[in-house]
Each structure stands twice: as structure tokens, then as C-alpha cells.
Specification:
- The protein has 194 residues and is mainly alpha-helical.
- The protein has helices at residues 27-45, 62-70, 75-82, 86-97, 101-125, 136-147, 158-169.
- It has a domain at 62-124.
- The chain contains seven helices and no strands.
- The longest helix has 25 residues, at 101-125.
- It is elongated, with a radius of gyration of 41 Å.
Length: 194
């Protein structure tokens, strides 16, 4: 079947426009007439024409959402606290904040982590004006987290350890037992007379 020629003169494209039944009203005209009838009825009832119809939109309490995100609340927890659905929170974030809930959550969480880290360092290092001594446990923990310090014991060759210990104690390596404690002399010294 050959392609129909469109009004623009281009060939090779099929037109998707359906033939209208004789006497049928175009869809745009039907929409316009419905809108006019609805507006006329609203005017008759005294309802402003531009006022939206349907269920009122939920108002999101953004300061409350921000506070909850500051303590790492999930979308489920925020939705439950505001008494709305999770989808409503997601849509409101995109519409009113211009980002997804996850992006908003990560941004707020980042600020809270900076505050938490600042407080941890203040506690770990102590404060002169508050007369707060350094917290050794916090210093150790921060050292492990940030400096990759560990509690692992170093494995040392027992012969090298024995030689080093004998050098430090000034005794022969043969005098040191395997547990690292020097042997007691064979003859204990005689007690001194009192």
C-alpha cells in the first residue's frame, strides 16, 4: 500500500490521524465545553473558579523534616510522624526541594556527622575553659578510626626476643626461660642476719 501524501507535501510517512466521523465534535472542543460547564456550576454555587477541586494537599512541615533528618530518620519514620504516606514525602521533596528524599537525607546527615565529629574531638582532647580533661577512651577510638591504629600484638621471633631481653637485662640468653622470665639462680642468696 503506497504511503499517503500529507498536506505538508512530505511522502513516506503514514498519517496517524483518524478520520473523524461526520458530525463528531473534536476532543479539544469537548474538553473546552466540559471546563466551561464546570466553571458555570462553580460560579452558581459561589465557589471561586480558580480554586482547585479534590482533596486538599498535605502541607509538609519542613523544619520538622529537617530536624528528623538531622538524627538520620528514615522516610518511613518521617512519613509516620507527619501522618502522610511515604510517596507523599517523596513527591514533596522533588516538588518543593528539587531533590529526592535520599539526596536531602544525605545532605542533612552530612551536616550532622560534621557536628558529631567536632563534638567527639572536643571530648577526646578536653577543654581548658570547661575544665574537662581529655577522654583517653575517645582518643584511642578516634586513633583506630582515623589513623588505622590497632591493638594487634606484633609477632616476634622468640630467639630475637630472648637475645634482646638478655642484652637489656645484662644476663646470658641461656639464663632466660622461654616465658621471658630470667631463671632464678641455683643457690638462693643467704638471708642477711638482722
Amino acid at each position: 500500500m503506497p504511503a499517503r501524501k500529507r498536506a505538508s507535501g512530505r511522502t513516506g510517512e503514514r498519517t496517524t490521524r483518524k478520520k473523524q466521523r461526520p458530525g463528531a465534535i473534536p476532543a479539544a472542543e469537548v474538553e473546552r465545553r466540559i471546563r466551561a460547564a464546570v466553571n458555570a456550576e462553580r460560579a452558581r454555587l459561589g465557589v471561586p473558579v480558580d480554586e482547585p477541586t479534590g482533596r486538599p494537599r498535605h502541607r509538609i512541615d519542613w523544619p520538622k523534616v529537617d530536624a528528623m533528618l538531622g538524627i538520620s530518620a528514615t522516610v518511613e519514620e518521617v512519613a509516620s510522624c507527619l501522618d502522610v504516606s511515604e510517596d507523599t514525602i517523596e513527591r514533596a521533596c522533588v516538588a518543593e526541594r528539587g531533590m529526592t528524599f535520599r539526596e536531602l537525607s544525605l545532605r542533612k546527615r552530612g551536616k550532622k556527622l560534621v557536628s558529631l565529629r567536632r563534638t567527639q574531638f572536643r571530648v577526646a582532647l578536653g577543654s581548658r575553659h570547661a575544665k574537662q580533661p581529655p577522654n583517653v577512651t575517645m582518643l584511642i577510638w578516634l586513633g583506630k578510626q582515623l589513623l588505622n591504629q590497632t591493638d594487634k600484638l606484633q609477632h616476634v621471633d622468640p630467639q630475637r626476643a630472648k637475645a634482646e631481653l638478655s642484652r637489656l637485662l645484662g644476663v646470658s640468653p641461656d639464663d632466660i626461660e622461654d616465658d621471658g622470665i630470667p631463671d632464678a639462680p641455683d643457690d638462693p642468696p643467704a638471708p642477711e642476719p638482722a
